[in-house]
Every structure is written in structure tokens, then in C-alpha cells.
Design brief:
Number of helices: 7
Order of helices and strands: EEEEEEHEHEHEHHEEHEEEEEEH
Number of strands: 17
Strand order of the largest sheet: 7-8-9-10-11-16-15
Shape: globular
Distance between the termini: 20 Å
Largest sheet: 7 strands, mixed
Oligomer: single chain
């Protein structure tokens, strides 16, 4: 979809391309199996909440909708282009040349965008580090913004620093560690050959939303509203309810956190009356909002995409 920021009305969302017939054999199927900690499947008991995704998708890995998006972008002249769902290319049985051709299509699309058009890349779970390296080599030089969760952050950071991804990550990462990893990521990305600087990173975790914004930039406002709106969207989406019921939520973030794991770093309290914290950090502003974690889960698949989209909408100048 391509979206205008002139209003938040549904009329401003354009869906380019043709609709696929749901009765067709080519119709894409995505099945998400979600389970909570303690749930049982036969003789097995889940030790943590998670989800398992299987799909039969013949369109997205081949970028069949990209031509229609290119045409729409030229006519629509959007403020922002969001790249997501590219994990669908990962592990797809391409020949080497077919994969090169798909990546070239993405590169040409990004190169043709006006320089003032902002580009956001939403990370996902990738399996093949060789593919992820090729993909990020194409996308990151054009990206003004990146979004990812607490598992995807160490994955991307490790890939850029060592060439390898992380196969196991902590599900409850301390705020200080996340802050340090994001600083390392920004430092590495901005030393690579780039068409434009990386000016924004949004880390969305189970416990909190953290937004890094380069203070001297032309595209983004302060991240405080983004952090708040993303946090509320996470709660509402996972609970499947626009209202927030205090009996169905809990806060798992501590009542204070360190801004870095370096000894002597600033410790920031979570104050009930003003729970969102923003502070300067070198050339960046960091804003962090705790998440009211839903305890009666209706859905998690697609949650990151929803809160990312809302966060972007309220971050644009």
C-alpha cells in the first residue's frame, strides 16, 4: 500500500495492483499457529509463548506486485515507502540468477525513488545469513529508518559486524543491552557506503517501545508520540480490543532502567504520571514507552507491522 500523510482517513490508503481470486489455485495461503506458555500439544508442553508459520506463496517471493507499486509511487508521490515481507524471499528455491534478478528489481525500485522520499525497512525473521547479507546490502544504503523486534536486532547487528546471524536470543533482554546494541548498529550502518544517513531506528519489544531519532534531520519529529502510539497499538492488537481493560494487562518492565550497560550510566525511572521517557544520546534522541502487556492474547501475528505503521504515521514531519 502507499499512504499519504495529508490525513489519516481510509481514503488516503491506495492498494495498487490486481486482487487475486480466492478460489484460484494460485491464491496464497499463510497459516500461523500461535501458542502460549504452558499450552499442550499431545505429549509436548510449550516452555514459552511462540508461533509457527507455514505458507504457500507464489506471488510475494517473485515480487509480482512490484510493477504495480512502481506505477502507483510515480503517480502518488508518497512521503514514505515501507519495505516489509521480504522474508518471503528467504529459503525460496530460486536459482542463483533468479535471486540476483529479484534483488536487482528492489535496487532499481529504490534507486528511482525521489531522494526526499523516506524509506523504512521492517526487519523480520530470516533463516539464511547469506541471503540476508545480500538483501541488506541492497536495502540499507537507501533506508532512512529500520524497525525490528528484540530477536531481530541482535540478528542484524551480528550479521553486519561478523557476517553471521544469531540463532538463539534471549526473550527478555534488558533495556540497557538493547540500547547498547542499537547504538552499535547505528555506528556500523552509518560507516557503510550509503545514499543517505540512517536517521531513525524503532525497536519494538514485548516490554517496551524504543525509538532512536537523529535530532538534526528533515523527516522526523520527536519520537515521544511514536513510542506512545506504538505501545498502545501493541496492547490493543494483541488483546483484539480497542479499549484497554486493566484486568487483561500487566507491565513487565521494571520501575527503572539503565540507559546503557556501561557502569555509572544514567538510570531512568518509570513515573506513573509520565511513563514515557525521552533523553538526548549523542546526536540522537531516544524515547521509550513501556508496553501494557496483554495477558489474554487473541493474536500476535502481524502485531509488529501494525504498531510499526502507526509509529511511522505519528513520527513524520
Amino acid at each position: 500500500a502507499v499512504v499519504s500523510t495529508q490525513s489519516t482517513g481510509i481514503d488516503e490508503i491506495k492498494l495498487p495492483g490486481e486482487t487475486v481470486d480466492t478460489e484460484s489455485e494460485d491464491y496464497d495461503l499463510h497459516i500461523i499457529l500461535e501458542f502460549d506458555k504452558g499450552e499442550q500439544w499431545g505429549q509436548y508442553t510449550a516452555t514459552r509463548g511462540n508461533r509457527y508459520i507455514v505458507h504457500r506463496d507464489k506471488h510475494n517471493p517473485l515480487l509480482k506486485g512490484l510493477a504495480a507499486v512502481k506505477t502507483a509511487v510515480k503517480d502518488f508521490n508518497p512521503h514514505l515507502v515501507v519495505l516489509g515481507g521480504l522474508q518471503m524471499l528467504d529459503t525460496y528455491p530460486f536459482t542463483e540468477q533468479e535471486l540476483i534478478d529479484r534483488l536487482q528489481e528492489i535496487d532499481e525500485f529504490l534507486a528511482d525513488l525521489p531522494k526526499e522520499t523516506l524509506v523504512h525497512f521492517e526487519m523480520a525473521s530470516f533463516v539464511n545469513p547469506v541471503f540476508l547479507k545480500k538483501l541488506t546490502d541492497v536495502i540499507l544504503p537507501y533506508s532512512d529508518s529500520i524497525g525490528m523486534n528484540e530477536q531481530e536486532l541482535p540478528n542484524l547487528s551480528s550479521l553486519l559486524r561478523t557476517g553471521n546471524t544469531v540463532y538463539i536470543s534471549d526473550s527478555k533482554i534488558k533495556v540497557s543491552k538493547t540500547m547498547d546494541e542499537t547504538r552499535e548498529l547505528l555506528a556500523v550502518v552509518n560507516t557503510l557506503p550509503r545514499h543517505k544517513p540512517l536517521t531513525r531506528v524503532h525497536i519494538h519489544t514485548l516490554a517496551y517501545q524504543a525509538v532512536f531519532t537523529l535530532r538534526d534531520n528533515n523527516g522526523w519529529m520527536s519520537g515521544i508520540t511514536t513510542a506512545v502510539k506504538s505501545s498502545l497499538t501493541a496492547t490493543r492488537y494483541v488483546c483484539g480490543d480497542e479499549s484497554i481493560d486493566s484486568s487483561k494487562i500487566k507491565m513487565i518492565l521494571d520501575d527503572s532502567f539503565s540507559s546503557s550497560a556501561i557502569p555509572g550510566s544514567q538510570r531512568i525511572p518509570i513515573i506513573d504520571s509520565t511513563p514515557v521517557s525521552c533523553w538526548p544520546d549523542g546526536p540522537y534522541e531516544i524515547c521509550l514507552a513501556p508496553v501494557l502487556v496483554c495477558t489474554q492474547i487473541k493474536q500476535t501475528g502481524g502485531g509488529g507491522d501494525n504498531l510499526t505503521g502507526v509509529g511511522l504515521l505519528y513520527h513524520l514531519k
